[in-house]
Amino acid sequence: MSDPNAQPGGFGPPGDHGNNPYGAPQQPPTPPTPGYGYPGPATPPATPGYGYPGPATPPAVPPATPYGAPGYAAPTQPSNGMGTTGLVLGIIGVVCTLTGFLIFFGIILGILAIIFGAIGRGKANRGEATNKGAATTGLVCGIVATVLLPLLGLLLVAVGVIGGLGAMS
């Protein structure tokens, strides 16, 4: 037979565990969650309660090996310093030749760009380098700085001299 005055749950009034020595242990109040922005201060670890302990937390990130996985070497990237040098020298040679008063330096840099561009292109064809486009561009810029722009300059001077002679007569 049941008691008609029994409370729901059958263990007495709820929340009266402070006076009951066999009731559930009191949990410390949880701190409020921080709002937006920087995270709040770290909370101290909770004191162990009664009963079976909870699952252990695994480490967040496994420790990394300092030099990569053992037994494997990192793949080396083929480089083409010759092709890059040819490109840079070719661009500077074209600019120097276009300025007019640095034509001598432009021609020298153009010759060097042709040499470095050809070597870099050969390395790229053998598979020792990857930037065949830079080497080819350096080769072309060297040719432009060494041959085409000085010829264009000579042509303009010749046209000016011929035009000047024609105006004098």
From TrEMBL:
InterPro entries: DUF4190. Residues 84-149 form the DUF4190 domain. Residues 1-57 are annotated as: Disordered. Keywords: Membrane, Transmembrane, Transmembrane helix. Pfam families: DUF4190. The keyword Manganese does not apply. The chain crosses the membrane at residues 87-119, 139-165. This is DUF4190 domain-containing protein. The lineage of its organism: Bacteria, Bacillati, Actinomycetota, Actinomycetes, Kitasatosporales.
